[in-house]
């Protein structure tokens, strides 16, 4: 689990699930994205406001630049 700004990032090494939830409005949290990825996503973090996912045998994943 990792928190950055108003978002909570969750990962599961067992199932390969990645979930991003926006908590800008605490009374109405919003699911931003839910993915099931190959590999074993470990502790999530951000670098320069982009999500970094150490993903086991799949390597290090970096969120695409939103441009």
What do these coordinates show?
Helix content is 0%, strand content 48%. The protein has 67 residues and is mainly β. The protein has one domain (2-62). The strands form two sheets. Strands 1-2-3-4 form a four-stranded antiparallel sheet, with no helix packed on it. It has a three-stranded antiparallel sheet with strand order 5-6-7, with no helix packed on it.
Distance between the termini: 26 Å
Radius of gyration: 12 Å
**Low-pLDDT sequence parts:** none
Helical element count? 0
Order of helices and strands: EEEEEEE
Give the strand line-up of the largest sheet: 1-2-3-4
Into which percent range does the helicity of residues fall? under 10%
Q: Overall mean pLDDT score?
A: 87
Number of strands: 7
């Amino acid at each position: 689990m990792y928190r950055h700004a108003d978002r909570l990032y969750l990962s599961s090494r067992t199932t390969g699930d990645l979930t991003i939830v926006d908590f800008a409005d605490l009374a109405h949290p919003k699911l931003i994205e839910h993915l099931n990825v190959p590999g074993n996503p470990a502790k999530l973090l951000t670098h320069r406001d982009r999500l970094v996912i150490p993903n086991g045998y799949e390597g290090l994943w970096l969120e695409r630049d939103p441009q």
